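Before we proceed, please read the two lines closing this message. Report back on whether the structure tokens fit the sequence:
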Amino acid sequence: MKAVGLYRYLPIEHPESLLDLDLETPVPAGHDLLVEVKAISVNPVDAKQRAPKDQVEAKPRILGWDAAGVVKAAAPGAALFRPGDEVYYAGSVVRPGANCEYHLVDERIVGRKPAALSFAEAAALPLTTITAWELMFERMEISKAGAHAGRSVLILGGAGGVGSIAIQIAKRIARLKVIATASRPESAAWARQMGADEVINHAQPLGEQMKEIGEPEADYVLCFNDTDRYFPDFPALAKPQGRIGAIVRSVRPVDLAPLQPKSIAFAWEGMFTRSTFQTPDMIAQHRLLDEAAGLVEAGVLRTTLKQNLGAICAGNLRRAHRLLEEGHVVGKLVLERF
């Protein structure tokens, strides 16, 4: 089968940072599905996993944690899907990724592809949807039924992949007032298109802009960007008894003490936690993706696909990684077909 992978961890400009490969097709076992990959999306985690380091792989390392495709075979322990089913998923960071023609994935973290979307449109959604959904509804306990309707949420990094779907989830499911950050006209317009009520500039002091729009503090703060950069601002941005959630691991130690006077709760989200640690509730991500598919089909949620970079190959994936590393991607980058 065709695949894109690496042996060495090199700068993306290096021609061997990602390679076109020809590998054996894997065989499903346990709870696995063998999926014929039709489209993939590229996320910051791909670039972080590929980042230069002194390590050489004996076997090629395959990246890629967003895919949509068709089930070709199912292991004896798999019962949720059958060959021919169209699916979408993010996979597991501790297993080979989806940048390959045929991919093994545990069915407990796989959802049925939204019928209303193409494979490319569907591939844009799984990782970011799981991340935003788990952070808001599970970690921060925001009501999915709208019990907290009217409360405010500040989304730092509103035009990125996670921010794009988080705006939709917050606005159209939780029915919150959404304040998103973006620093360029294109990204600000995209955040409004996703449903943001207000957009402020994260390149400027946030506190003053929050006051200007009549929301000096937010009930919830979602940080989808540089946690270290924004952490000093959190105590002033969140309301007393507010909640803050972050997805980007901090480089420096995090001091929670400044959050104590306001009794502000802080939560981390890692969407690979369930698959990495094989938690007893792994199947929650299957259910989550199925529910999200229904919301897409009902017109509540929409794809966050912004740019299709063409065929799945090393050259196009290097381009995607380069764009992500430059830090100005709006929405999601997708590739389709080998």
Q: What stands out?
A: The first strand starts at residue 2 and ends at 9. The longest helix spans residues 126-139. Residues 292 and 301 are 8 Å apart (CA to CA).
